[in-house]
Design a protein that fits this description.
- The complex is a heterodimer of chains A (448) and B (545).
- With 448 residues, chain A is α+β, with helices and mostly antiparallel strands.
- Chain A folds into two domains: 207 residues, PmbA/TldD fold (2-Layer Sandwich), CATH 3.30.2290.10; 233 residues, no CATH class.
- Helices cover 21% and strands 36% of the residues of chain A.
- Chain A contains ten helices and 18 strands.
- A six-stranded antiparallel β-sheet of chain A has the order 3-2-1-4-5-6. In chain A, strands 7-11-12-14-18 form a five-stranded mixed barrel. Chain A has a three-stranded antiparallel β-sheet with strand order 8-9-10, with no helix packed on it.
- In chain A, strand 11 and strand 12 form a beta hairpin.
- The longest helix of chain A has 17 residues.
- Chain A starts with 5 loop residues before the first helix and ends with a strand.
- In chain B, strands 1, 2, 3, 4, 5, 6, 7 and 8 form an eight-stranded mixed β-sheet that branches. In chain B, strands 12-19-20-22-26 form a five-stranded mixed β-barrel. In chain B, strands 15-14-13-18 form a four-stranded antiparallel β-sheet.
- Classes of the chains: A alpha+beta (448), B alpha+beta (545).
- Chains A and B meet through strand 1, strand 2, strand 3, helix 2 and helix 4 of A and helix 1, strand 1, strand 4, helix 4 and strand 19 of B.
Chain lengths: 448, 545
């Protein structure tokens, strides 16, 4: 019952709108089914399943809004939830930032739902985890990992006739493989809408190889280095830049997009000209819903072109204040630009190996960890390398090195771009591996 | 509370409000109705027995069931506007079983005998599927059944019974004070949590618990448009395991000094005024010269350093590798504990784990696998003497019973090892903060927690703060900016030069310590008195973009 079709959702939503006596009414319905296996020390540690479905009604009188929700779907319950929302709205004070609901919109199609992913059951999960465990056991290594699959739907309808529906599937997998001595560690992580794109065994082999090759790391001095960041490390850093794109914060003078003397950096060359950033909900490798929870259509949007800031995000309220068109960040739920995911950075054609072969002296970084903001004004971040850090000289990996702590801003990093590799999916983002000069490492860590 | 008041305020901004994740199935509620909806223990026992019987008949050698109602209330404001008021309730049942030596878990929001039996069967099926790829069977420490028992947090005022209007008025007053005292922006909030948890297991325990937490907070922002700079200062409050009485400040709870800090109660109106003045000073403060300094760390800051470097490193599941793929492992490997002489810190350093401390976030009567809570030493005179563990791990330490560290954030998440309150004991000799500062030639006094990051084995860390004061020749000489310190856990705790006495002991803490996959939040407190560390590496974090 938790996953309704477009037609089934429409029937419930229409019924709810029919019960409304408010000036405006907006209804959202969502449901999901999910399951997971967590494993460590080469054995399952926890596993579980859950499912849910929920309906929320927002009723509006003037600029007064009331919201109520329910997880029962008989007629009496549906009537009750509408009455409750209206009762709340009548008693609410005016919301000065309330924007009237939108009329019907046209949305693009996006391939977010894949049958084979929706069909995953506990046995399939156990089989996929089994393939990962087989790799670590065969190599006499230890694996700790997590496999999570979900299917879900979201649908909205309002009293002006707007209707939107999306269903999606997702499967995410990550594994850390370490050697028995605890001197080497490797990691892989990815997520897909389509389970057929996920090969837990092949990914686990990459983690196992990193665990073996990273053993016996040597210490080198912290400082500024040319780095080659694998796609995972790139996504760890660039996810943070979306925080500055909110026009309101920028105009209020409290983000890295704020300009000295007032105003924003819209139109400025803020990054290296090799950097362009866009979002596209219909991209086949990173499909998301084509509408946000207010019902605004999401379209392909260029945020940065050849290093120049081309757009900032405007909520409907802030856009009305500023006399511009609203420009949403994304569909929410971490997949939109606003949640850090959904970013697409076009790359070049070089493979990681080719990028290494043209590097005189540098460091290869598998991933970063425990990244926290140090200064929101410059977007300075700190964090550490983890699970495979290697020294490169004369175009070749020479030896594994101990992990570093870095203090670096992705804004500065995206100004120091030497080369971009081929763009791939990394979690909820599409980015290329990057060669960056003068990346700032500030201390050594003994962690493995 | 008058129902009308609730209805009036509960509607504010709900449509656009993004709620912190409390539980997968959390839904907005009327807190008055929720308070009336308490289910009596006899009904819960009947439902619990249905779960345990279904699990046993499915082949479970052990089963526990948690029937939980989790109430959350959040009030958010910004300047003169209420951004949102949200009341959520999450009610349901989670069932955990061991079948064929393997764990299985399933949960449902439908709390009826039939659904509970189905959910128990699903948990059994999950365990059986996973038993095929299981390694060693689960070894569960024995646990006596307590029969029917209960525990209630010793609160004075239930935050859910305080009218929302009162909270809204207080926060708008906070914002008004900030704006009047020169802040450009201010956000403020009050969060309240009530966990009504019923636990039963095949060991014969039926445990009913009522847990309360509260967290008031604000951020004031000062913008200097000419220079394009901005600075913020957060509240010096702490989330607490208390009721609304936390916001009724008493004179004896105030700690004087360069800025007022708070013990068991908090004066939010006083703090926001000071914060507005602080942030104006902060925006003009000089940038720190990097180098080695003595750092004098206030408990409002030190709690987070304790949390990251001691709390997490002494979690046994991390030591064993269960968190290797997410939160990380620990440098405190079992050989270091077995040696009996691993000097985690110098002999001034005594650190305890305590699930019983009144007013702390971690205090409960029993943990989420039916173990009565207790207090124990982790670091004694600088030596690592113990870890934090749960029933399926404690045999590794040669212990006969669990230390009671099992917790789940909701009925729909499986319980696992979570951090107890981990606290630094105060110095035994009389020492005030003023006297401590008199001994410092070149130092920085840090108040409030800021940026934080530590590696996955808990060696290398970096911390910022809210307020930084330069100490020169035994005196505070002014405010500093762009400060962060980096150190290594063992070096840091061996550089502990002095700890103030018990009169300066205060709790700090976190509402949302993350761990596990899927990630779960845990609330935990950390106590300390002001402590001085020598020769710590301070970096300058200013950059130009």
């Amino acid at each position: 019952m938790a996953i309704l079709s477009k037609e089934e959702a429409q029937v419930i939503l229409k019924k709810v709108i029919g019960y409304s006596t408010a000036d405006e009414c907006m209804v959202s319905l969502r449901g999901s089914e999910a399951g997971n296996i967590r494993y460590a020390r080469n054995a399952v540690s926890t596993a579980g399943e859950s499912s849910t479905m929920e309906l929320a009604v927002s009723s509006v009188f003037g600029k007064k809004v009331g919201t109520a929700s329910i997880n029962e779907f008989d007629d009496e319950s549906l009537k009750k939830v509408v009455q409750r929302a209206e009762e709340l709205a009548k008693l609410a004070p005016e919301n000065p930032e309330y924007m009237p609901v939108l009329g019907p919109q046209t949305y693009g199609e996006s391939p977010t739902y894949v049958e084979s992913t929706a069909a995953i059951d506990p046995l399939k999960r156990a089989e996929m985890v089994g393939q990962s465990l087989a790799v670590s056991k065969a190599a006499n290594l230890e694996a700790a990992g997590f496999l999570n699959n979900s299917k879900g739907f979201r649908s909205i309808m309002n009293s002006k006739g707007l209707f939107a529906y999306n269903k999606n599937t997702n499967v995410s997998f990550s594994v850390t493989i370490r050697n028995r001595e605890g001197t080497g560690s490797g990691y892989v992580s990815n997520s897909f809408n389509d389970v057929n794109k996920l090969n837990t065994g092949a990914l686990s082999k990459i983690a196992a190889e990193k665990a073996q090759k990273s053993a016996g790391a040597r210490a080198i001095e912290p400082g500024k280095y040319t780095v080659i960041l694998e796609p995972l490390a790139v996504s760890d850093m660039v996810e943070w830049i979306s925080r500055g794109f909110d026009a309101r914060s920028a105009e209020e003078g409290r983000s890295y997009m704020s300009k000295k003397g007032g105003g924003t950096r819209l139109g400025e060359q803020l990054f290296d000209e090799k950097i362009s950033i866009y979002t596209d909900p219909t991209h086949p490798e990173l499909p998301t819903a084509t509408w946000n929870m207010e019902g605004l259509p999401l379209k392909k949007t260029t945020w940065v072109e050849n290093g120049v800031v081309k757009n900032l995000e405007y909520s409907r309220y802030w856009a009305a204040q500023k006399g511009v068109e609203p420009l949403p960040l994304g569909s929410g739920g971490g997949r939109g630009f606003g949640g850090g995911g959904g970013i697409i950075i076009p790359g070049g054609t070089a493979s990681l190996e080719e990028m290494i072969s043209t590097t005189d002296r540098g460091i290869l970084v598998t991933r970063f960890w425990y990244i926290r903001s140090v200064d929101p004004q410059t977007l300075l971040l700190t964090g550490l390398t983890r699970d495979g850090t290697f020294y490169i000289e004369n175009g070749q990996i020479q030896f594994p090195i101990k992990n570093f702590r870095f203090n670096e801003s992705p804004v500065i990093m995206l100004n120091n771009v030497e080369e971009l590799g081929k763009t791939v999916r990394s979690g909820s983002i599409l980015v290329p591996p990057m060669k960056i000069r003068d990346f700032t490492f500030t201390s050594l860590s003994d962690a493995i | 509370m008058k129902r009308k008041d609730f209805l009036y305020y509960s509607a504010l901004g709900m449509g656009s409000l993004v709620l912190p994740k409390s539980s997968l199935f959390a839904r907005p509620i009327d807190p008055l109705e929720a308070l009336q909806e308490r289910i009596d223990a006899a009904t819960k026992k009947e439902l619990a027995d249905a779960a345990l019987n279904a699990a046993k008949s499915g082949g479970a050698t052990y089963a526990d069931v948690r029937i939980g109602r989790y109430l959350n209330q959040y009030v958010f404001t910004r300047e003169k506007r209420v951004q949102g008021v949200a009341n959520t309730e999450s009610y349901g049942v989670g069932i955990r079983v061991i079948v064929d030596g393997c764990w299985g878990f399933a949960a449902s929001h439908v709390v009826t005998k039939d659904e509970i039996a189905k959910t128990a069967a699903l948990a059994v099926a999950v365990a059986k599927a996973n038993a095929k790829i299981q390694g060693e069977p689960v070894q569960l420490a024995p646990q006596q059944g307590y029969g029917e028992v209960s525990w209630k947090a010793p609160i004075e005022i239930n935050a859910f019974e305080v009218p929302i209007k009162e909270k809204v008025d207080l926060l708008l007053q906070v914002n008004d004070i900030a704006l009047q005292n020169g802040a450009n922006f201010v956000n403020s909030m009050i969060a309240a949590i009530n966990e009504q948890k019923y636990f039963a297991s095949t060991d014969g325990s039926y445990i009913d618990q009522d847990i309360h937490r509260i967290y008031p907070n604000f951020t004031v922002t000062k913008v200097d448009r000419e220079s394009g700079k901005f600075q913020t200062r957060n509240a010096l409050s702490s989330p607490m395991g208390m009721g609304y009485e936390y916001l009724n400040a008493r004179p004896e709870d105030k700690v004087g000094g360069v800025v007022t800090r708070y013990k068991g109660r908090y004066d939010i109106l006083e703090d926001v005024k000071l914060a507005s003045l602080n942030v104006a000073e902060k925006i003009k403060a000089k940038s720190v010269e990097p180098g080695k300094y003595d750092v004098v760390l206030d408990p409002s800051h030190l709690w987070l350093t304790i949390h990251e470097s001691v709390g997490h490193s002494t979690e046994l599941d991390r030591v064993l590798g269960y968190e290797a793929n997410y939160a990380g492992t620990s440098f405190l490997t079992l050989d270091k504990w077995k040696s009996g002489n691993f000097n985690f810190g110098n002999e001034k350093v005594n650190i305890v784990a305590d699930k019983t401390q009144v007013g702390s976030l971690g205090a409960v009567g029993y943990d989420d696998e039916g173990v009565k809570c207790k207090k124990w030493d982790l670091i004694r005179k600088g030596i690592l003497v113990n870890y934090q563990a749960i029933r399926d791990q404690v045999h590794i330490l040669g212990e006969k019973e669990s230390q009671g560290c099992c917790y789940s954030q909701g009925w729909d998440d499986v319980q696992f090892q979570r951090m107890a309150n981990v606290s630094l004991l105060p110095g035994e000799e009389k020492l005030s903060v003023d006297d401590m500062i008199k001994d410092v030639e070149k130092g920085i006094y840090i108040i409030g927690n800021g940026s934080f990051s530590i590696d996955q084995q808990r060696y290398n860390f970096q911390f910022g703060g809210q307020l930084f004061y330069e100490i020169s020749q035994g005196k505070i000489v002014g405010m500093l900016n762009d400060v962060a310190y980096q150190s290594n856990t063992q070096e840091f705790w061996n550089s502990c030069a002095a700890i103030c006495d018990a009169s300066d002991y205060r709790l700090g803490g976190a509402f949302n310590d993350g761990k596990g996959q899927p990630s779960q939040s845990n609330a935990v407190s950390h106590g300390s008195a002001t402590t001085r560390f020598t020769g710590v590496n301070v970096i300058n974090t200013a950059r130009n973009i």
